[in-house]
Amino acid sequence: MDRGTELLVAAEKGDADTVRLLLETTSLDADFCSQDDKRTALHRAAGYGHLAVVETLLKAEANPLIQSAAGRTALHDSCIGGFDRVVKVLVRYMKRGRAMDTQDKDGQSACHLAAFHGELDCFNILADKGADCGLHDNLMRTPGHLAAMRNHPSILQSLFYKGINLQVVDSQGRAPIHFAAQHGGVEALAALIQCDCPTTVGDSFGCRPHHYAAAHNHVNCLRLLIKNGCHPEGRDGSGRTPAHMAAQYGGMTCLHWLLEKGINPNIQDDQGYTPLHYAGEAGSAECFNCCLQHDAELSIRNNRDDTALDTAKLAGHPVVIEKALKSELKCRHCLHKYNFLEWEKANQPSQVERGISHAGESAYVSPIPPATRAASQLEKNRQKQQKLAAKKASQDKKGAKTDVKLPRRDLAAKYYGEHVGDIYKLDF
Questions:
Q1: How many CB atoms sit inside 10 A of residue 244's CB?
Q2: Which band of pLDDT confidence, cut at 50, 70 and 90, is reported for residue 389?
Q3: Is the pLDDT of residue 374 over 70?
Q4: Which of 2, 75, 157, 357 is the most interior residue, by most CB within 10 Å?
Q5: How many CB atoms lie under 10 A from the CB of residue 300?
Q6: How many CA atoms lie within 13 A of 413 on its CB side?
Q7: Segment Disordered: which positions (predicted)?
């Protein structure tokens, strides 16, 4: 092993003593790199988070701005690994203007890579030191696009609080919210909605975020977008609805959910295609069967006068679509629903169980039962006692003394019921 290779291996393993010894005792350049990938010892140490080696190399005047064959600096590599302490050290040594915004061959800066990998600490260090957090790569994507793509809501919130525009579009007119919907990032999508990003914005082709969610079968994203303003039958630039997109690209779960919500299964786009046409053309048997289960019509023709079965034959899928037509291949969600309904029907409660259940429920809503005969008799006794008491008080007031015979208490009727009360007559 030659001295240069030994330096690279020591840096990669984090052996700071060997690195220091090689630099002090040999004429090796601190910026020595391999010929294949052009990565220096500083690249390797930064990529593995070896802080001591990074500091040793920088003190030996290693250049942190050297780019590898991929166009990346040591700062790029440290952000990929999320080594925030290394990032702090490298930023201190980058004294030249916009050195932190050095872009690789894809046009991505260290900010792009920190956002893509969800390294919030590294991202905040770069942003606080003045890095451009809204820089575009070769495809016009910003760090916000990459954070939305990889479902990193914390990065998106950090961008929003720093005043970065989260509605900027890439080369195809897509905003970060399109990327979140396309890649199924529900948390990122929710964060963007909270940051006041519109949900109905279209890209260069008129596709809205919920079209992307349906096409890639991200039903939770689709539900969230429809809940926040997207119309379930909203059309793109070609007149396609989310149901068309789901059928065309095999998004069976989204298609089933939309049909269950009551959208028109026979809705046509600008070419006269229904979701059934797209399912047949794509050879998606489950989507085709799902449309049939929700009353899609086979007789509808597109602008070329083709039915759904015709499009399936023209696309080379007659056999599989024929099986879907005969329900030999079924939508698994429709099948699950059917099985559940059959189970529920077969396991209906018996008449006795329904009676018990009804009695249990009625116990809380039944009116107070009417007074018994014994209770009524007691009430009459009480009223008579009140009258006698009032009469006695009136006589006492006049000075007249009259013996009054008070009634007996009908204890038999009170405690033993009306059949006893009939026997023991009150004597007044």
A1: 28
A2: confident
A3: no
A4: 75
A5: 16
A6: 21
A7: 373-405
Residue type, 407: P
Least confident of 268-277, 337-346, 389-398: 389-398
Instruction: Point out which residues pair with 33 in neighbouring strands.
Output: 40
Q: From the CB of residue 32, how many other CB atoms can be counted at a distance below 10 Å?
A: 18
List, for residues 13-70, the tens digit of each pLDDT value: 999 999 999 999 998 999 999 989 999 999 999 999 999 999 999 999 999 999 999 9
Task: Count the neighbouring beta carbons within 10 Å of the beta carbon of residue 388.
Answer: 15
The number of residues making up the chain comes to: 428
Torsion from C-alpha of 4, 10, 14, 17, nearest 10 degrees: -100
Give the closest residue to 207 by CA, choosing from 241, 180, 250, 170: 241
What is the DSSP code (8-state) at residue 305? S
**From 176-185, 286-295, 351-360, the region with the lowest mean pLDDT:** 351-360
Give phi and psi for 33, each to the nearest 5.
-135, 160
The CA-based angle 230-231-234, given to 5 degrees, is: 110
Cα–Cα distance measured from residue 262 to residue 227, given in angstroms and rounded to the nearest whole number: 15
